[in-house]
């Protein structure tokens, strides 16, 4: 779940893209990059780190031009080396830079095709480099000398035929303009909007609508599954469906945790979906535990707050902010290694003892994934003097790996995998555990847009919307990306110098 941005403007885009990336920082904390073009050359700066650390003033001054793309990264393929930071660049045809959110599930097959048939060289293990090269190869097939929107739509159509998995992408084509496209299942979110200025219309494509809001853009709509948006450097916009078949199945985990609450994804307010998650969870507690003895509802900041506040109000129980979050520490879940995740929970969250002392507390989180947060938080609540510690999750148990852009590659790392609710209660050390029901989670989103019938909900169900995810694939993924195995490769990686993909 990286963050992507693309802009074509009537004025320099460097600061706007930087600002949009800071608003999307919650989608990736490992690396950041911006490429701009003045119509003649492209200028790229990318490195590991947060947006505020990657771009110094002298970099910003050199990112000139009125069009560009940006990226914040949370790796799901390859490693976390700076050579795999995005955007990626290829010089032929035209010169293209691409930012990608998602993960390709047929990366190995594509890698082979790119080498054997397309004669293209890949220099990293990043699936984004693969996506870019497939797009570039398909764009090369155009017969016309002068690039036209039609050629780009054809190339995106071919990308859809060749690539499997989740992908939302923004690409900058040198001397031409910006392209945004989304996979035929619409797994990852991407939205576009416009801003009227005295000089003309500016356009922005971004992972989440909150980036449009922050920069004063008006949301036009989501890029639909399989669709592509082309914006030329002189501000002409073209939109076309490029896939033969689409099956809209947005990632339901965006609504649970990934996206900001102030974003609108596929016409559903994330905030309202989370409020409904709280309501339905409260209904379940009232149904199954009518004589509960909860004294106070306490959210685990930040993401669970929206659901928790509504849950407390439905239960008619006090809502209290019992944990204070250190605002200078980022999201734990998207940190790259388990050691780092475990250490950061206590540094990040500190209890206010008097909200716990002698009380039966219901701690609410949006989800329990590896159990890193819940285990430690329950311990902290007991240390703070709580009498009983109950735990509620606004999402059902996370039991299966994700293969579409969330870094959950290994089932065995998931605390709920292969365990009953009673066992999980014991592992995390709670006195009682209540999970949202799957149907209620889906309803919490669908009420916002009844056209949404199907979701990418594999982390809860083990059902994958692309038909290519076999047990062998999952086994390979676990071997390559499980925390323990990755650590060993990370050490090796530091000893090897890769070509930094610079424009
Ligand atoms: O079971 P786990 O593996 O611990 O993962 C789940 C936790 O991780 C996330 O919080 P995070 O700190 O990433 O971000 P937040 O501040 O947005 O809640 C999520 O909100 C849960 O609290
Ligand atoms: N989280 C993502 O969207 C990751 C994008 C891409 N697969 C990478 O690893 O860089
Ligand atoms: Mg959290």
Automatic annotation (TrEMBL):
<keyword id="KW-0460">Magnesium</keyword>
<dbReference type="GO" id="GO:0000287">
    <property type="term" value="F:magnesium ion binding"/>
</dbReference>
<dbReference type="GO" id="GO:0009113">
    <property type="term" value="P:purine nucleobase biosynthetic process"/>
</dbReference>
<comment type="function">
    <text>Catalyzes the formation of phosphoribosylamine from phosphoribosylpyrophosphate (PRPP) and glutamine.</text>
</comment>
<dbReference type="GO" id="GO:0004044">
    <property type="term" value="F:amidophosphoribosyltransferase activity"/>
</dbReference>
<dbReference type="InterPro" id="IPR017932">
    <property type="entry name" value="GATase_2_dom"/>
</dbReference>
<feature type="domain" description="Glutamine amidotransferase type-2">
    <location>
        <begin position="2"/>
        <end position="234"/>
    </location>
</feature>
<comment type="pathway">
    <text>Purine metabolism; IMP biosynthesis via de novo pathway; N(1)-(5-phospho-D-ribosyl)glycinamide from 5-phospho-alpha-D-ribose 1-diphosphate: step 1/2.</text>
</comment>
<dbReference type="InterPro" id="IPR005854">
    <property type="entry name" value="PurF"/>
</dbReference>
<feature type="binding site">
    <location>
        <position position="365"/>
    </location>
    <ligand>
        <name>Mg(2+)</name>
    </ligand>
</feature>
<feature type="binding site">
    <location>
        <position position="303"/>
    </location>
    <ligand>
        <name>Mg(2+)</name>
    </ligand>
</feature>
<feature type="active site" description="Nucleophile">
    <location>
        <position position="2"/>
    </location>
</feature>
<keyword id="KW-0658">Purine biosynthesis</keyword>
<protein>
    <recommendedName>
        <fullName>Amidophosphoribosyltransferase</fullName>
        <ecNumber>2.4.2.14</ecNumber>
    </recommendedName>
</protein>
<keyword id="KW-0479">Metal-binding</keyword>
<dbReference type="InterPro" id="IPR029057">
    <property type="entry name" value="PRTase-like"/>
</dbReference>
<dbReference type="InterPro" id="IPR000836">
    <property type="entry name" value="PRTase_dom"/>
</dbReference>
<comment type="similarity">
    <text>In the C-terminal section; belongs to the purine/pyrimidine phosphoribosyltransferase family.</text>
</comment>
<keyword id="KW-0808">Transferase</keyword>
<dbReference type="InterPro" id="IPR029055">
    <property type="entry name" value="Ntn_hydrolases_N"/>
</dbReference>
<feature type="binding site">
    <location>
        <position position="366"/>
    </location>
    <ligand>
        <name>Mg(2+)</name>
    </ligand>
</feature>
<dbReference type="GO" id="GO:0006189">
    <property type="term" value="P:'de novo' IMP biosynthetic process"/>
</dbReference>
<dbReference type="Pfam" id="PF13522">
    <property type="entry name" value="GATase_6"/>
</dbReference>
<dbReference type="Pfam" id="PF00156">
    <property type="entry name" value="Pribosyltran"/>
</dbReference>
<keyword id="KW-0315">Glutamine amidotransferase</keyword>
<keyword id="KW-0328">Glycosyltransferase</keyword>
<dbReference type="InterPro" id="IPR035584">
    <property type="entry name" value="PurF_N"/>
</dbReference>
């Amino acid at each position: 779940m990286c963050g992507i941005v693309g802009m074509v403007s009537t004025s320099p885009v460097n600061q706007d893209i930087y600002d949009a990336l800071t608003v999307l920082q919650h989608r990736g904390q490992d690396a950041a990059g911006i490429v701009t073009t003045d119509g003649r050359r492209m200028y790229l700066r990318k490195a590991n780190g947060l947006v505020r650390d990657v771009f110094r003033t002298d970099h910003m001054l050199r990112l000139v031009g009125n069009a560009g793309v940006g990226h914040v990264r949370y790796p799901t393929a390859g490693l976390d080396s700076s050579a795999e930071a995005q955007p990626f660049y290829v010089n032929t045809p035209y010169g293209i830079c691409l930012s990608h959110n998602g993960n390709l599930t047929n990366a190995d097959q594509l890698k082979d095709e790119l080498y054997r048939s397309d004669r293209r060289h890949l220099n990293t293990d990043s699936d984004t480099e693969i996506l870019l090269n497939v797009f570039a190869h398909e764009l090369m097939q155009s017969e016309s000398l002068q690039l036209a929107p039609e050629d780009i739509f054809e190339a995106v159509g071919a990308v859809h035929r060749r690539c499997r998995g989740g992908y939302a992408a923004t690409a900058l084509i040198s001397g031409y303009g910006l392209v945004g496209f989304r996979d035929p299942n619409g797994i990852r979110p991407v939205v576009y909007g416009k801003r009227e200025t005295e000089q003309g219309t500016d356009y922005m494509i971004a992972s989440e609508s909150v980036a449009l809001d922050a920069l004063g853009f008006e949301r036009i709509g989501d890029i639909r599954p399989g669709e592509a948006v082309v914006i030329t450097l002189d501000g002409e916009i073209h939109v076309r469906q490029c896939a033969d078949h689409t099956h809209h199945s947005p990632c339901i985990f965006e609504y649970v945790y990934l996206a900001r609450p102030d974003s609108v994804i596929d016409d559903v307010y994330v905030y309202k979906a989370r409020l409904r998650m709280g309501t339905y969870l409260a209904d379940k507690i009232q149904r199954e535990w009518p004589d509960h003895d909860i004294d106070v509802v306490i959210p685990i900041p930040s993401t669970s707050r929206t659901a928790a506040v509504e849950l407390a109000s439905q239960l008619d129980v006090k809502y209290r902010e019992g944990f204070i979050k250190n605002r200078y520490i980022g999201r734990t879940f998207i940190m790259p290694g388990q050691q780092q995740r475990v250490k950061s929970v206590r540094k990040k969250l500190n209890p206010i003892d008097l909200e716990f002392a002698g009380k039966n507390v219901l701690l609410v989180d949006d989800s329990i994934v590896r159990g890193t947060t819940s285990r430690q938080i329950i311990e902290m609540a007991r240390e703070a003097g709580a009498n009983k510690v109950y735990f509620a999750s606004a999402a059902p148990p996370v039991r299966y790996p994700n293969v579409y852009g969330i870094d959950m590659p290994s089932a065995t790392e998931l605390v709920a995998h292969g365990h009953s609710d009673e066992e999980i209660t014991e592992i995390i050390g709670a006195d009682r555990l209540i999970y949202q029901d799957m149907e209620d989670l889906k309803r919490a989103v669908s009420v916002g847009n009844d056209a949404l019938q199907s979701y990418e909900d594999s982390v809860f169900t083990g059902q994958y919307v692309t038909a290519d995810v076999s047990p062998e694939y999952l086994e390979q993924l676990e071997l390559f990306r499980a925390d323990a195995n990755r650590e060993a490769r990370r050490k090796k990686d530091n000893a090897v110098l890769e070509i930094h993909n610079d424009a």
